[in-house]
């Protein structure tokens, strides 16, 4: 079953240091030693790289909702304790294994790892790295993997969004939400209705390209969408909140509309009234972006190379809402849990 966001908050801050094993050079890493407890910062002894692996000097690491779920034991994929969370990063190559041919020392890269990225160094398979083009900063690049990879696959690969269509997106001012707005408007030439939980978030979504916005904390999302587009409805809905927000988004769809389930940030998984699918020839589908890495690497890799290319061309503009230091990782988690974050939250390792 898909993961749920729990409601318990972490204490404000709880950091500790303990010496790593071995001697010589060490690097710092965030460590989850116990589920639902604050992360610790530890000194870790580096291990040698395997022939196909690359050691990266991490500059920025994305803080994703999924990292928080993983540290609560509520993510789709359970990690064994203790572990270092962090599924995406940007940085420069420090060292390559003997069989590595795709990158060399000094190259600027982004990586998708699943775990281990919330650290000053990260070792990963060469297949999990993509070169960052010259015009793209490492800070911008760090925003791209999870949020833009997901937005691109949700809108294009799954929902087949067409120019001129209307897209409704929930949690629109969040990391993935703003990426959906950016890709839908600036790449796919669609119109976006942004749905978010405060007027301030709605304002940001409009500033980032949405044509309309709805504050769903103040009434029915479905009624608000109907007021904006009439009874015809929207062509595509991208939902990350679940529960009632999902059901209202489903009921806002037009004939042959498509709804893509991305997550359940609100904590509730809705059941789909299947008669609604029949009545308007609606298609309801899910997207688990990270799973494409195993199931269809070509599609996965293209979502990343497209994001990098759009960014280099200036067609998309990643938005960083807040940056925290590694030792502030628990504050960064709280910022997201308390719904204070907008756009991407990053850890800066430099
Ligand atoms: N399937 C995939 O491959 C995939 C990829 C990326 C993300 N996701 C999922 O998409 C969702 C958003 O991820 P993100 O990284 O973009 O997160 P984010 O930037 O932290 O956005 C989360 C937003 O969810 C909304 N929300 C609604 N109810 C909430 C609650 N009870 N607690 C916390 N937030 C709540 C909030 O926006 P409002 O205040 O505006 O409601 C919040 O800002 C998550 O569920 C994540 O797991 C899935």
Structure notes:
One of its GO terms (cellular component) is mitochondrion. GO terms for molecular function: oxidoreductase activity. This is Quinone oxidoreductase-like protein 2 isoform X1. Residues 36-347 form the Enoyl reductase (ER) domain. Belongs to the zinc-containing alcohol dehydrogenase family. Quinone oxidoreductase subfamily. There is one protein chain. With 350 residues, the chain is of the alpha/beta class. It has 2 domains: 27-131 and 319-348, Medium-chain alcohol dehydrogenases, catalytic domain (Quinone Oxidoreductase, Chain A, domain 1, Alpha-Beta Complex); 145-290, Rossmann fold (3-Layer(aba) Sandwich). 29% of the residues lie in helices and 25% in strands. The strands form 3 sheets. Strands 3, 4, 5, 6, 7, 14 and 15 form a 7-stranded mixed β-sheet that branches. Strand 12 (253-261), helix 7 and strand 13 (283-286) form a beta-alpha-beta unit. Helix 2 packs across helix 3 (175-186). The protein is globular and about 65 Å long. It starts with 26 loop residues before the first strand and ends with a strand. Residues 1-22 have low confidence and may be disordered. Bound molecules: NADP nicotinamide-adenine-dinucleotide phosphate. NADP nicotinamide-adenine-dinucleotide phosphate (NAP) binds next to helix 1, helix 2 and helix 3.
> Roughly how many Å apart are the termini?
37 Å
Q: Which structural class is indicated by helix and strand composition? A: alpha/beta
User: What is the residue-averaged pLDDT?
Assistant: 93
> Compute the gyration radius: what is it?
20 Å
The CATH class of the largest domain is: Alpha Beta
Q: How helical, in percent, are the residues?
A: 25-40%
Low-confidence stretches: 1-22
List ligands, each type once: NADP nicotinamide-adenine-dinucleotide phosphate
Q: Give the overall shape.
A: globular
